[in-house]
């Protein structure tokens, strides 16, 4: 492969190794993408609650890892209890339902009295397992002249 006196760092010497590594990475990424957690709810915009309303938002996700998956809510990228030390917004307990080789998980975010502070807060449901992370973000829009709007929502898998 290398001719006498050729620099072993030349492209010709390393090309087969680079191609092999690329194939291994591609194959690994394709297989692991099937193991990523997936948020299944909320996927649709939810109606904006009235100020002062007591309500909850539920996050549901699927994971291939029954015992190695965590789920939690963030508020402006902080833990909910840190941003709301008074308990005005709290996370419910994680509920798990085994399905086949995986699990479906659910966790509520409970609002004691929806407030203007909540309107200006980005809430994010995070699901992590050994294959990666899935998130969905909710933020309610202020009222418009035509009425109320649902939350802005984005779902990411990385």
UniProtKB/TrEMBL annotation:
Keywords: Signal. The keyword Signal applies. GO terms for molecular function: interleukin-18 binding. InterPro entries: Ig-like_dom (IPR007110), Ig-like_dom_sf (IPR036179), Ig-like_fold (IPR013783), IL18BP (IPR039681), IL18BP-like_dom (IPR055139). Residues 37-139 form the Ig-like domain. Pfam families: YLDV-IL18BP-like (PF22009). Residues 1-29 form the signal peptide. This is Interleukin-18-binding protein. It comes from Alligator mississippiensis.
